[in-house]
Design goal:
The complex is a heterodimer of chains A (528) and B (44). Chain A is built from 23 helices and no strands. Chain A is mainly alpha-helical and 528 residues long. Chain B has 44 residues and is mainly α. Helices cover 84% and strands 0% of the residues of chain B. Chain B has one helix and no strands. The chains are: A mainly alpha (528), B mainly alpha (44). Chains A and B meet through helix 5, helix 9 and helix 14 of A and helix 1 of B.
Chain lengths: 528, 44
C-alpha cells in the first residue's frame, strides 16, 4: 500500500472528524452537553458508541490472533461479550444507572458513586485510579495501531502516533461527547462493513462454516509446528476443541474469558454511555443494536482467528514473530488479509482497525479528561464550580492527557504494558461490587463503599504484582506461587467476591448517617 | 463434532447467536408488543 493513498484517505477521515467536532462544539452549551451529550442520544448511536468503545483494535486483531493460538474455545468470551457485555449490562445496570444519574445529577461514574455516598473524596479517589490507568491503556491502543499502520504503509511510527493523537484530540476537546459519539457511529459502520466482508470471504474461501471448521480441526500438531505456530502446543485437542480441563491452555482461556467478559460491567468509559440516553426507550433499543454489533465484531473475529492457521499451513506462511523472536499473534490476521485479499480490501480493513482504535481512544480520553477536570479538580478539590468552568477545566485536562499520552506513546516505558494489562481487570476488581451495590442495595454506607473500592483495588494490584503469571515475573522476578493453577487465575475471581464482602460487612458495622439516608432516598426515587 | 467443533465449543458458538437473538427479541418485545398491549389497555 502506498503512503500517499493512506495520507489522502487519512486527510478525508480527519476532515470528517473535525466537522463533527465543530458541530459538537456548536451544540455544547452546558456541562451536561459536554459530559453526557446533553442526555439526548438515541438507541442506535448509544449502541454503536458503546460497541465501538468496547471493541478496540486490540479486541479485533489482538484477540483474533490469540484465537489463532488457543482455538475456538475463546468463543465463550464472545458469548460473554454479548450476553453480559450487552444484555446484562443494559438491562440490569443501564436503566438504574440512568435513573440514579438523573436523580443525583451525576455526569460520570465516579460522580455517581461520590454523590450516592455524599463523598467528594471517594469521587476524587475513584477518578484518580481511573485516570492514571486509562492513560496507560490509551497509550497501548495507540502503540498497537501505529505499529500496524507503520508496517502496512511504511510511515514512520512517530508520524503515525502524532497524526492519530492530534486528530482524536482535536475533535474530542472541541466537540465533547457529541462529537465522540457521532464519530463512533461512523467508525462503527466502517468496522461492521470490514468485519462482514472479511468473515464472509474467509468462510467462502474455505467452503462454508462446517468445511472451514473441519479444515481447522484436521490440522495436526506437526502441521502447526511446521509453520512455527504456538497452537501446536497451546491447542492440544485441536483448534476447534476446548483444551483439557485445568491444563495451562485451559487456565489461559479461563482468565481471558472471565477477566474481560465480566470486567466489562464496571468500565467507566462504557458506564457513561447509559447516562447519555434521552429516555428509557433509547436504552431498550440499544440492546438489539448492541447485540448485533458485538456479534459482528467479536464473534466474527474469534471465529476467523483459528481459521488463519489453515491458510498459513496451506501456503507455508510462517507464524509472525516479534523482533525478539517471540510469536506475534497481533500480526496473524493482517498477514492473512495482506496475502489473500485485493488491495482495496486491505485498505478497508486497515481503516476499520484504525476506526476501532480511534473510537476506543477518544472514549478513553474523554473519560480520563472528565475524571481529572470534573471529578478531581471541580468536585474533590474546588468542591464545585460553575458548569461552564467545569467544561473549560475538563478541556484543559483532556489536552493535558492527550499530550501525556503522546509523550508516553513516543517513548513508551515498560510500565505502560503492565498498566494496560491491569486495566480491564483493575476496573472490574475495584468498581464492580460497589457499583452493583450502589444501584441495588439501599443500605450500603459510605464506609462500605470505601472498603469495597479500596479492598478490590489493593487486592487486584497486589495479585498482578506478586502472583499473576503475565506481570509478576517482570516486576518481582517470579510469581509467589509456582502452581500455574493459581498464578494463571485472573484476580477478578477473588477481587470481586472480596470487594462485595468488604462493602457488605463494613456497611453493616458502620451504618449510614442521616444525610446518607436522605441522599439514598433521593437516589432511588425513580427506581421501583 | 458439530459443525466441525467439539460440543463445548459448539455450545459457545450457538450461545453467541442465541444471546444476540435474546437481545433482538428483548428490543422487539419492548418496542412493539409491550407498547401495543399498553395502548390496548389505555383504549379499554
Amino acid at each position: 500500500m502506498e503512503a500517499a493513498s493512506f495520507i489522502v484517505f487519512m486527510a478525508l477521515f480527519a476532515a470528517v472528524y473535525i466537522i463533527l467536532g465543530y458541530i459538537g462544539y456548536r451544540k455544547t452549551k452546558t456541562a451536561e452537553d459536554y459530559f453526557v451529550a446533553g442526555r439526548k442520544m438515541g438507541g442506535l448511536v448509544i449502541a454503536f458508541s458503546y460497541g465501538a468503545t468496547f471493541i478496540s483494535a486490540v479486541a479485533l486483531i489482538g484477540f483474533s490472533g490469540i484465537a489463532s493460538i488457543y482455538g475456538h474455545g475463546i468463543l465463550w468470551l464472545a458469548f460473554l461479550n454479548i450476553f453480559v457485555g450487552i444484555f446484562i449490562a443494559f438491562v440490569f445496570y443501564g436503566f438504574r444507572t440512568r435513573k440514579m444519574g438523573l436523580s443525583l445529577n451525576a455526569l460520570t461514574m465516579p460522580e455517581l458513586i461520590g454523590k450516592r455516598f455524599n463523598s467528594t473524596r471517594l469521587q476524587g479517589m475513584s477518578a484518580g485510579i481511573i485516570a492514571v490507568f486509562m492513560v496507560a491503556y490509551t497509550t497501548a491502543v495507540f502503540l498497537a495501531i501505529a505499529s500496524l499502520i507503520g508496517v502496512s504503509f511504511g510511515i514512520p511510527y512517530e508520524t503515525c502516533v502524532i497524526i492519530f493523537t492530534v486528530i482524536v484530540g482535536i475533535y474530542l476537546v472541541v466537540g465533547g461527547l457529541y462529537a465522540v459519539m457521532w464519530a463512533h457511529t461512523l467508525q462503527g459502520v466502517l468496522m461492521v462493513v470490514g468485519m462482514i466482508v472479511l468473515t464472509v470471504a474467509i468462510y467462502g474461501m474455505l467452503g462454508g462454516v462446517a468445511p472451514a471448521h473441519e479444515a481447522a480441526a484436521s490440522l495436526t500438531a506437526s502441521d502447526l509446528a511446521g509453520i512455527g505456530s504456538p497452537a501446536a502446543t497451546q491447542a492440544p485437542n485441536g483448534l476447534t476443541s476446548f483444551p483439557p480441563f485445568l491444563s495451562k491452555p485451559f487456565m489461559m482461556l479461563l482468565t481471558l474469558i472471565f477477566g474481560v467478559g465480566i470486567g466489562v460491567l464496571a468500565q467507566p468509559q462504557l458506564v457513561v454511555r447509559y447516562l447519555t440516553a434521552k429516555d428509557e426507550r433509547a436504552l431498550r433499543l440499544a440492546v438489539p443494536y448492541g447485540g448485533i454489533f458485538i456479534l459482528l465484531m467479536t464473534f466474527t473475529a474469534f471465529c476467523i482467528g483459528p481459521l488463519c492457521n489453515v491458510f498459513m499451513v496451506e501456503n507455508g506462511w510462517m507464524f509472525p514473530l516479534k523482533s525478539n523472536g517471540a510469536p506475534n499473534p497481533d500480526q496473524v490476521l493482517p498477514l492473512v488479509v495482506n496475502n489473500l485479499f485485493p488491495p482495496w480490501f486491505v485498505f478497508l480493513f486497515l481503516f476499520a482497525i484504525l476506526a476501532a482504535a480511534m473510537s476506543t481512544a477518544s472514549a478513553l480520553f474523554h473519560t480520563a479528561g472528565a475524571c481529572v477536570g470534573r471529578d478531581i479538580y471541580d468536585k474533590a478539590i474546588k468542591k464545585g464550580v460553575s458548569g461552564e468552568k467545569s467544561v473549560k477545566v475538563t478541556r484543559y485536562a483532556t489536552v493535558g492527557i492527550v499530550i501525556a499520552t503522546l509523550i508516553l506513546s513516543l517513548r513508551p516505558p515498560d510500565v505502560v504494558a503492565f498498566m494496560c494489562a491491569f486495566f480491564f481487570g483493575l476496573m472490574g476488581g475495584t468498581f464492580l461490587a460497589v457499583y452493583t451495590l450502589t444501584l441495588y442495595w439501599k443500605k450500603m454506607s459510605r464506609a462500605g463503599a470505601w472498603a469495597g473500592i479500596l479492598g478490590g483495588f489493593l487486592f487486584t494490584i497486589l495479585w498482578y504484582v506478586l502472583v499473576y503469571f503475565k506481570t509478576a515475573p517482570s516486576i518481582i522476578g517470579s510469581s509467589m506461587f509456582s502452581s500455574y493453577k493459581i498464578n494463571m487465575l485472573d484476580p477478578l475471581f477473588i477481587a470481586i467476591p472480596l470487594s462485595f464482602l468488604l462493602a457488605y460487612a463494613v456497611s453493616k458495622v458502620f451504618k449510614q448517617d442521616s444525610e446518607e439516608k436522605r441522599i439514598t432516598e433521593k437516589a432511588f426515587e425513580n427506581i421501583g | 463434532m458439530i459443525l466441525g467443533m467439539d460440543p463445548f465449543v459448539f455450545t459457545a458458538w450457538l450461545g453467541c447467536i442465541l444471546a444476540t437473538i435474546l437481545c433482538v427479541v428483548y428490543g422487539v418485545y419492548h418496542e412493539y408488543i409491550k407498547e401495543r398491549k399498553k395502548k390496548e389497555k389505555e383504549e379499554e
